[in-house]
Design goal:
alpha/beta, 222 residues, 10 helices, deoxyribose-phosphate aldolase activity, globular, Deoxyribose-phosphate aldolase, TIM Barrel
């Protein structure tokens, strides 16, 4: 896959706790240079990123309930609403992982639906992070099914802050579960062109990566 095609799979991501304004401006400039799909940041930076990306088709993406997923549903919905007000066009929320593990499917679905309703009220896009490293096969399937039922637009593998990130087998399972009805985003631990292509071949149509430059430079000659 050539560089220009691959770039539009990429959410250029910077979610470090010690991110500074200069860091955020730098990644926005990198995103503009490589023409990525989005820049993904913590919601505090939404307005800055939106301003930096004005006049481009690169989306501002913000995380919600990140990275643990254990904040209240009301706070997740508020965080999403505020991020959109500040310019976010895509929201990546973390499910309530503990409630999924406990079999409290109704609570998991309600949590996602509250954010989905908030995001869709502004005609924006919602990705749901299921944090695959905590889940077994059936739980991954259930998380995807609940996400779809609650109105998500994408399911996403990982925060990148847990014990493991994206795995091709998980991406394939998620794609099998949601079919072509939802998007699938692979995120966490993708550092090279070959790893990126492995995720795309498994069914991912978006990649959350911080190693954007290395991955896209690796596309040279392909």
């Amino acid at each position: 896959m050539n560089k220009s095609t691959l770039s539009k799979y990429i959410d250029h991501t910077y979610l470090k706790a010690d991110a500074t304004k200069d860091d955020i401006i730098r990644i926005c400039n990198e995103a503009k240079q490589y023409n990525t799909a989005s820049v993904c940041v913590n919601a505090y930076w939404a307005a800055l990123v939106s301003g930096q990306l004005a006049g481009t088709d690169i989306k501002t993406c913000c995380v919600v309930g990140f990275p643990l997923g254990a904040t209240s549903t009301a706070s997740k919905a508020f965080e999403a609403r505020q991020a959109i007000k500040d310019g976010a066009e895509e929201i990546d929320m973390v499910i309530n992982i503990g409630e999924l593990l406990a079999g409290e499917d109704g609570n998991v679905e309600a949590d996602i639906k509250a954010v989905a309703d908030t995001v869709h009220a502004s005609d924006k896009l919602l990705k749901v992070i299921i944090e695959t490293s905590f889940l077994d096969h059936d739980q991954k399937v259930r998380a995807c099914e609940l996400s779809e039922k609650a109105g998500a637009d994408f399911v996403k593998t990982s925060t990148g802050f847990s014990s493991a990130g994206a795995k091709a087998d998980d991406v394939a399972l998620m794609r099998q579960t949601v079919g072509d009805r939802l998007g699938v985003k692979a995120s966490g631990g993708i550092h090279s062109y070959d790893e990126a292509m492995e995720m795309i071949d498994a069914g991912a149509d978006r990649l959350g990566v911080s190693a954007t430059i290395e991955i896209l430079e690796g596309a040279e000659g392909n």
